[in-house]
Specification:
single chain, alpha+beta, Porin, eight-stranded antiparallel barrel
Amino acid sequence: MKAKLIVLALLVFWGTSTQAQNNTLQNWQLNKTPKTGLKGFIEAGWGAGVNIYSDVPVSLLTTIGYQINHHLFVGLGSGEIVFTSQSVYSIPLYADFRYNVLKKAISPFVDTKIGYAISDLEGFYASPSVGVRFGTSINTALTVSIGYELQRADKEKILLYGYKSTEYIGGIIIKFGFDF
């Protein structure tokens, strides 16, 4: 009889312990997911040209916006992109849309920046990317993504800076970011 009580007590304790561990893991995950409210990103990137008409972009971008729910972020941003082979730079002004796929501390995301760039090269700007968000606390995260930087400019300015006669320059870019 004593042995049955001991076994029953151990099973109850083990079940309670397992449930507590699951609750702790769920709380850890939820405490590192994006919370609704004002949010910002800083991203630094380095890229590589993909064909004869592309260039190597190096970028530093900042975005401020609103996290609508755990998944969807909408914001506005700006920064600087330098196309290194010709030392040409642009300052994009863009709208940013980010979607976190999972409601977990570590989640893949899809990000799209669309806008207009000014400075040496003026024109349409776009930067779609995919990446992973690593939640570090209730309000912060580290991100890594891969995407494409695309800059359009009129032919005269592109020819002025030594590019071929295309109207678009850009390249694949890897970005490292910090969410706050």
